[in-house]
Write a structure and sequence with these properties.
The complex is a heterodimer of chains A (about 375) and B (about 475). Chain A is an alpha/beta fold. Helix content of chain A is about 30%, strand content about 20%. The chains are: A alpha/beta (about 375), B alpha/beta (about 475).
Chain lengths: ~375, ~475
């Protein structure tokens, strides 16, 4: 990679004339629900969360991932080549994420399964019996106290299980009964894989971080859009942060741009940030994932340096989820996920011309372009 | 929302009292009326009606646009705003908002409720108005939701956030009425085993209502004719608010705004409108307009559409982001709208997407969030473009407003500054004079309740004091909606 005159080109190579175009690494969405939803209002097409219990680490997104979803080509056309797929946020522990590329067969698309544990903490996870479909009757845990107690007890139970399991293994005890829930939590309690914690309010951030530190979790914070009062403290945690949605409304007593400026404010404090495609007012799903670059552009409008914004939807995401050596930048040896566009990738007016995933020029077609073409005849 | 909210609520309760106490003093101290003449110089002026002037000037006189062009004939006494390097556009207009209604958007107890008036639910203190203002929005049509086939009558506001409720009403704006169709009404009533539970039922509910309205109208016409003939014994029919509103539709007194997604339903709606003799002003959402655009263009109906939302329900499955530009190219007047307390803050960026999806010119794109929504609401003779004689509703941007990077720096409504991005939280740039002037010119200023006055300080003054520098926390008001509205 380098200046056009300097790069050695082997004989027989296909030459793509990209004069006048911008070339940049494929974008990576740090939080999506690709393959878990099709039509938001049609429950039969949704596999977003298992609401029967709050602690569901043994739910594997990889089991439900519907690779043929119409959402993926739509996002791909705007330069999104990779994504983390996570369950929805109704449970304290919702399940385990997968890391995908947005092209190929199902198995090719799932670059890695169980890459991170999806945790959530705050008002939404309480079982108050009034939270809409599936929330059922009020039940434990119906308060934040209950949520934290339940999490702590489950983590302690897992540690207890680990000890017993290890002891049984030493004795070669064939009668030892595996528990799928505790098994699922082990790598995360050992700090081997990241735990993505979705949390909004500053006091909830402080509470859940206390618990996370108690159990030495490898934390990635997610959302934090109502936490402008503790940004220095968040920086002191030395954990990466996914910001989303940048379009969340600020609190009533805050300036109109209190959330818009969040990426800039965290980056200024040395925090490694990612920006997600979550769309504050749009469908709460990845139907709007194609707008990922504009969320990053919006962060630039409100003070984030341009390079930091591009990293927040490419290299930083790859780093957070263990793909920093394979994805997220145009560097020799990395997967050839490359986008060609007719302008600034973060500007809403820019048109993506071609997307390459692992070197393959993917068809620039979605169900939407087909409809467009059919009715343009 | 937990204990942290409580101190805030306390402050909010105490604040009005404190404000009343300092109100008179402040009112006297700050006599800065908005300048009669303002000239913006050196901006890229996007007029929305007649192209763009690089290094253009705009002269505002007494709240109206008095000149626009490469140069203007303003008096030397005019206040000059150096807008070099900035962009100047008409105020953004949202023809489909549910802001500031505290969720009172559907009287979803019966499917035909035309006499419900949005104004009765309008909370002028909502922080969502302030946030929209910060995105350059100067005019909004506050609409009913889509639970009912006929939801009720909308209200048009000018986003003069910080002023009294009535001072925010768009003076003498035409009335609009919201209709709906498709999934929402049939779901709401079908889930209760009531009519309608199908699209057949949806439309029949409308026809039945208009049959009643026709008879009601005929009764009144007969009575009026008798009175005209001098019949002193003529007995007026009983007034019925519901039928009166529907008769207003049949008489063409209300603009009909219809929530409608699917191509077949546009056609059925137009057929029913012709059957009963009214016109449809605009289809809202209108995500499948690209399939039947020439037919709808012939009826003169506009659309107010999302740019790129899709898949949130079955009738939004065939939504494509090229819909707006494809429909425009086939003669449909296209407005973009928010239907969201989130998107209303960045409709300019939504317009920018139209350059990407379908290759709209910048002129066409900016018109979709200014002049075209103004037409949809019926106020295009007063606002929506930078033309001489129109209201001086203007936004100064730091960047091309169609790019991702644009921030509204200053927002003017009727020539007065209502938003200034350089001010800290809780501070608005409202002058006492604008408060008084606006209140005086409001069409339906309510009588001030004597309990709400203290000395020389009435409700308007309170609103004003709440927005003064130093009155931090007074505005934006504590009306909270962190999770944005969903369709």
């Amino acid at each position: 990679m380098g200046n056009a005159t300097e790069v050695k080109i082997p004989k027989g190579a296909q030459i793509v004339d990209a004069r006048g175009l911008t070339v940049y690494p494929g974008l990576i969405d740090p939080e999506s629900n690709f393959g878990l939803t099709e039509i938001s209002a049609d429950s039969a097409t949704n596999d977003l969360e298992e609401r029967s219990d709050e602690i569901m680490p043994h739910m594997h997104v990889g089991d439900a991932f519907h690779s043929e979803t119409e959402l993926i080509p739509v996002a791909r056309l705007n330069g999104v080549t990779n994504a983390v797929v996570a369950p929805a946020s109704g449970d304290s522990v919702a399940g385990q994420d997968i890391f995908i590329q947005l092209y190929g067969s199902r198995s090719q698309m799932m670059l890695a399964t169980d890459v991170a544990l999806a945790m959530n903490y705050g008002a939404e996870q309480r079982r108050r019996g009034s939270g809409g479909p599936g929330s059922g009757r009020a039940a434990y845990p119906s308060t934040r106290m209950g949520l934290i107690t339940e999490l702590r007890q489950n983590f302690l139970d897992t540690q207890d299980y680990m000890a017993k399991r290890d002891a049984a293994a030493k004795k070669d005890d064939k009668a030892f009964r595996r528990d799928l829930k505790f098994e699922a939590l082990i790598p995360y309690l050992k700090g081997e894989r990241p735990v993505v914690i979705g949390v909004y309010e500053s006091y909830d951030v402080e509470t859940i971080m206390t618990l996370a530190r108690e159990f030495h979790l490898k934390v990635i914070l997610n959302h934090v859009t109502q936490s402008q009062d503790i940004l220095d403290e968040i920086a002191s945690y030395k954990v990466p942060v996914i910001i989303g949605s940048i379009y969340d409304a600020p609190r009533a007593d805050e300036r109109y741009d209190a959330v818009y400026t969040l990426p800039a404010e965290l980056a200024k404090r040395g925090v490694k940030i990612a920006i997600s495609s979550a769309d504050g007012g749009g469908p709460a799903s990845s139907h709007s994932a194609r707008n990922l670059p504009y969320a990053a552009g919006f962060a630039v409008a409100y003070g984030l340096p341009y390079d930091d914004a591009l990293k927040a939807i490419t290299l930083n995401v790859a780093d957070m989820f263990g793909f920093g050596d394979k994805l997220g930048s145009l560097d020799v040896g990395k997967m050839a996920n490359v986008v060609l566009a007719n302008g600034d990738p973060l500007d809403v007016r820019t048109d993506v011309k071609q997307v390459y995933i692992q070197g393959i020029a993917v068809p620039m077609v979605s169900r939407q372009t087909q409809l467009r073409d059919e009715y343009s005849k | 929302m937990g204990s942290l909210r409580r101190p805030l609520r306390l402050i909010v309760r105490i604040l009005p009292l404190a404000l009343l106490a300092i109100c008179a003093a402040l009112g006297r101290a700050q006599q800065s009326a908005p300048p009669t003449d303002i000239v913006f110089r050196g901006a890229t002026v996007m007029t929305a009606s007649h192209g763009t002037f690089e290094h253009g000037s705009v002269w505002v006189h007494a709240g109206k646009i008095a000149g626009v062009g490469a140069t203007v004939d303003a008096p030397s006494s005019a206040t000059t705003v150096d807008a070099t390097g900035l962009w100047l556009t008409p105020g953004i207009i949202d023809p489909h908002s549910h802001s500031a209604l505290d969720g009172d958007v559907n009287e979803a107890t019966i499917p035909v409720t035309p006499s419900m008036h949005m104004i009765d639910a309008f909370d002028n203190r909502s922080a969502d108005l302030y946030r929209a203002l910060a995105g350059g929005v100067t005019t909004e049509l506050l609409l009913h939701g889509s639970a009912n086939m006929i939801g009720g009558q909308a209200v048009v506001i000018k986003n003069k956030f910080g002023l009294d409720r009535d001072a925010m009403l768009f003076p003498n704006a035409p009335g609009s009425i919201k209709f709906a169709s498709g999934e929402n009404p049939k779901r709401v009533y079908g889930s209760r085993d009531q009519l309608p539970s199908t699209r057949m039922g949806n439309f029949e509910v409308m026809r039945m209502a208009f049959e009643d309205a026709k008879h009601y109208m005929a009764d009144w016409d007969a009575y009026d004719a008798k009175v005209k003939k001098g019949d002193k014994d003529a007995v007026p029919p009983k007034r019925d608010l519901k039928l009166e509103a529907l008769a207003d539709v049949l008489r063409g007194k209300l603009y009909v705004q219809i929530h409608c997604y699917r191509a077949d339903e546009f056609l059925t709606e137009e057929a029913i409108a012709k059957e009963y003799g009214y016109k449809i002003r605009a289809f809202h959402h209108a995500l499948e307009m690209y399939k039947v655009a020439p037919q709808i263009a012939a009826d003169g109906t506009a659309i107010a559409t999302f740019t790129d939302w899709w898949g949130f329900k079955d009738e939004a499955r065939d939504a494509i982001p090229w819909n707006a530009v494809m429909s425009m190219r086939q003669g449909v007047r296209v407005a973009l709208k928010s239907d969201s307390d989130d998107h209303i803050r960045r409709l300019n960026v939504e317009a920018g997407k139209m350059v990407h999806y379908g290759g709209a010119t910048e002129d066409e794109a900016i018109r979709m969030v200014t002049l075209n929504p103004a037409w949809t609401i019926g106020v295009d003779d007063r606002t929506g473009s930078i033309d001489v004689g129109k209201d001086a509703d203007l936004v100064l941007w730091n960047h091309d407003p169609l790019s991702t990077y644009a921030r509204a720096m200053k927002v003017y409504i009727d020539g007065d500054l209502f938003f200034d991005a350089s001010l800290p939280a809780g501070e608005l740039p409202i002058s006492p004079a604008s408060c008084t002037t606006a209140a005086a010119s409001a069409p339906t200023t309510r009588r001030t309740d004597s309990d709400e006055t203290s000395g020389s300080c009435n409700r308007d003054c309170y609103a004003l004091c709440g927005s003064r520098p130093g009155a931090r926390g007074g505005y934006p008001a504590p009306v909270e909606s962190r999770r944005h509205h969903r369709r």
